[in-house]
Structure formats: structure tokens, C-alpha cells
Write a structure and sequence with these properties.
- There is one protein chain.
- The termini are far apart.
- By secondary structure, the protein is mostly beta strands.
- The longest helix has 17 residues, at 8-24.
- The protein has helices at residues 8-24, 100-106, 193-196, 211-217, and strands at residues 33-35, 41-46, 58-70, 73-74, 81-82, 89-92, 114-119, 137-148, 150-151, 157-162, 174-182, 189-192, 200-203, 225-230, 240-243, 251-261.
- The chain folds into two domains: 8-148, Chitinase A, domain 3 (Roll), CATH 3.10.50.40; 151-261, Roll (Chitinase A, domain 3).
- 32% of the residues are buried.
- The protein is 13% helix and 36% strand.
- A hairpin with a 5-residue loop joins strand 1 (33-35) and strand 2.
Length: 264
């Protein structure tokens, strides 16, 4: 990894890197570099497609995070954090707790796009630092936006992980699903059929499901896997689900439609 400078020289170097990276990619490239009002330096490596990411959107992305400088002194350090070997990072822009500079640098990204973000200390972990990040650290993030969740008229947000095939279930069909539900901000798991080893079975249309899951299943072909983000209204309502899910918290669900059986 080339050394990343925190001030004027960094802009020139990052711009050159963006041109080289864009020329190696098959998609539409941006190649431009700009600085946000808070001082975050953004380089568009690949523009991506679709609707731009705005506050209120759920998204999934991969990132690599490096310490680019400490108190203005450049560092040539490997990544200290990365999602590349596992699941993408999932959050809601403008609502989830994110580093201010990180959130600012993601705005207007499009699915499939790639950016390099240079976060000044004031937009990252500041004068105190955190964990392996020392005080007054300038951070560099390479981010790739995997997807922006689709939003339905009800407010259900989802992304398709596996498309499946065939006709979605209708009222009266008996369905079996595997699912895991959790709270993004805390990581608390509410339920997980893999842990229990028993899929969930029920008759669609019998009010046995939270509204958001019921809505999603009506559009899912057999063997489809979706990830859902549910507002409280589409989950457990104003009462929440005890201490596991507070009334204001949104719920994430990974759901796999195992099978669909017509009414007997």
C-alpha cells in the first residue's frame, strides 16, 4: 500500500491512485477527488449504478480501514479492520451510530461503487483514540457499496441474497423458513433457527408473523434468501419485545424460504 499523506500531497496521490484503480475496473469510473465541509477527503474509484445513498437508507458494504497518519505524521500501516473475509457491514445511514466522517463519505454512493475516504481525527476517533487507533489519528477507509436496500411502500427495506425460483406463497399456503433476527446497534439476537435446529412452519395469512416478515414472504420465491430491515411498526410495534428489542429499535432478519406447500 502506498503511503497516504494527510494534507495537500494526499489529494494528488489519491487522485492518481483513483485513476489507476478505475482503469483496472470494468465499470464506469469516477476518478474525482473532493473534500467535504468537515474535511473528509473523498476519492471516487468506481461510480456504481442505481439510486444514490441518502440518509434513511439501509445499506451493505465491505471496507478496509487503515491508520494513514498520527498527529500529522504519515504512517504506512496495514489494515487494522476489514470486513472482506466475512459478512458485509450493514447499517442505516443517518440513524446508525457511525463515525461522522465515515457517514459523510458514504452519502451519494451507488451500488457497486468504490470510494477511498480520508478521515481527519475530528471526524473519526478524535484526540482520545479508540482501541488500536491512537489519539489524533487520520484514518483511511476503502469502501465498496454492495447494495442499497430496496424500500417498499410500507417502509419494509430488503436486499436479495439468493433469488430462489418459482411462485411466492399466497394466503393459506404452509411455509417453512430458516431465520435469524437481531438488533444492529447492539448485536442482540432475538431468534435463530440454526441454533435451535428447527425451521419455523406456519400458514401464511393467519397473523402468525410480524407484518414485515409476512409482507416479504409474499414476494419471495422458494429457496430465496433475503435480508430485511423492519421499522418498529413492521416488527413488534410500540411495545417492542421486552429488553431484547426496545420500542424505538429496528430489527434485522435474515430469512430463507425452505419450502411452500399448498393448503391440504
Amino acid at each position: 500500500m502506498n503511503r497516504i499523506l494527510p494534507h495537500g500531497a494526499a489529494a494528488l496521490l489519491l487522485a492518481l491512485l483513483a485513476v489507476v484503480a478505475a482503469s483496472c475496473d470494468g465499470g464506469s469510473s469516477g476518478g474525482s477527488t473532493w473534500t467535504t465541509p468537515s474535511g473528509v477527503q473523498v476519492t471516487e474509484l468506481l461510480q456504481g449504478d442505481g439510486e444514490p445513498l441518502v440518509d434513511g437508507d439501509w445499506f451493505a458494504l465491505h471496507y478496509d480501514a487503515r491508520i494513514a497518519a498520527v498527529a500529522g505524521a504519515p504512517r504506512d500501516a496495514p489494515a487494522y479492520d476489514s470486513t472482506r473475509a466475512g459478512e458485509p457491514f450493514v447499517a442505516k445511514l443517518g440513524a446508525s451510530v457511525l463515525l461522522p466522517g465515515f457517514a459523510e463519505g458514504l452519502r451519494e454512493m451507488r451500488a457497486g461503487g468504490r470510494r477511498r475516504l480520508l478521515l481527519p481525527p475530528a471526524t473519526a476517533h478524535g484526540a482520545e483514540g479508540r482501541g488500536v487507533v491512537p489519539p489524533d489519528a487520520t484514518l483511511e477507509y476503502d469502501v465498496e457499496l454492495i447494495s442499497r436496500f430496496t424500500r417498499t411502500a410500507s417502509g419494509l427495506c430488503y436486499r436479495v441474497l439468493e433469488p430462489g425460483s418459482g411462485k411466492p406463497p399466497v394466503d393459506g399456503d404452509r411455509v417453512a423458513i430458516e431465520q435469524r433476527s437481531w438488533v444492529r446497534e447492539t448485536g442482540r439476537t432475538l431468534s435463530d433457527t440454526k441454533m435451535s435446529g428447527v425451521p419455523l412452519g406456519f400458514v401464511l395469512g393467519k397473523a402468525e408473523l410480524v407484518p414485515g416478515l409476512d409482507e416479504a414472504l409474499r414476494s419471495m420465491p422458494p429457496h430465496a434468501r433475503w435480508q430485511l430491515a423492519l421499522t418498529p411498526e413492521l416488527a413488534y410495534g410500540p411495545r417492542g419485545a421486552g429488553w431484547h428489542l426496545l420500542p424505538t429499535e429496528e430489527l434485522l432478519i435474515d430469512v430463507f424460504l425452505l419450502r411452500v406447500e399448498p393448503p391440504r
